[in-house]
Amino acid sequence: MIDIQVESLAESGRRYREIARHAVEATLAACGVDVAEISLTLLDDVAMRALNRDHLAHDWTTDVLSFALYAADEAVLGDVYVGFEQAARQAASEDLPVEEEIARLAVHGTLHVLGFDHPEGVEERSESEMYRLQESIVVALEDDLLTALPGSEASP
Question: Has this prediction a pTM greater than 0.85?
Answer without folding.
Answer: yes
